[in-house]
Amino acid sequence: MLLALLVAAASAWVPARWSSTDPQSLELLAGTPVNCLLLERVSRDFAAAAAARDIAVLRLVRPGEDPAGAVREAREAGVSGLVLEGAFAEDAVAPFRSAARQANWTVVELPPRARLRWNADASILGTYEGLWPGIRALEGDAARAAPTGGPWIETNTGFLRYVRASTDAAVWIAIKPPSGAPLSVQRYLHAIADAAIAGARWVVSLDPDFDRRLHARDPKALAAWARIAAHLKFYEDHAEWRQWKPAGRLALIQDESSGALLSGGILDMIAVKHAPVRPVPKARLSAEALQGARLAVNVDPSALTDSDKEILRSFTRGGGTLLSGPPDWKFPPPQEGRITLEDKDVERLNDIWREVNSLVGRRNLGARLFNVSGMVSNLLVSPDGKQILLHLANYTDYPAENITVHVAASCSGARLLTPEEPPRPLAPYPIEEGVAVEIERIATSSALLLDCKP
Amino acid sequence: MTRRELLGLFAGAALGPAAQPPAAPVAIARVAGYDAGLEDAMARLFDQLGGLGRLVKSKTVTIKLNLTGSPALRFEGRPLGATHYVHPRVVGAVVRAMGQAGARRIRLVESCWASGGPMEEFLLDSGWPVRALANAAPGVEFENTNNRGRWRRYARLKVGPGAWIYPAYDLNVAYEETDVFVSLAKLKNHETCGVTLSLKNCFGITPASVYGDDAGRHEPNENPTKGRADVFHFGKRPPSRSAPQELDPASSRDPGYRVPRITAELVAARPVHLAVIDGIQTVTGGEGPWIRGLKFVEPGLLIAGLNPVCTDAVAMAVMGYDPQASRGVPPFRNCDNTLKLAEALGVGTTDLRRIEVRGLAIEQARFPFPT
Question: Are A32 and A119 members of one domain?
Answer without folding.
Answer: yes
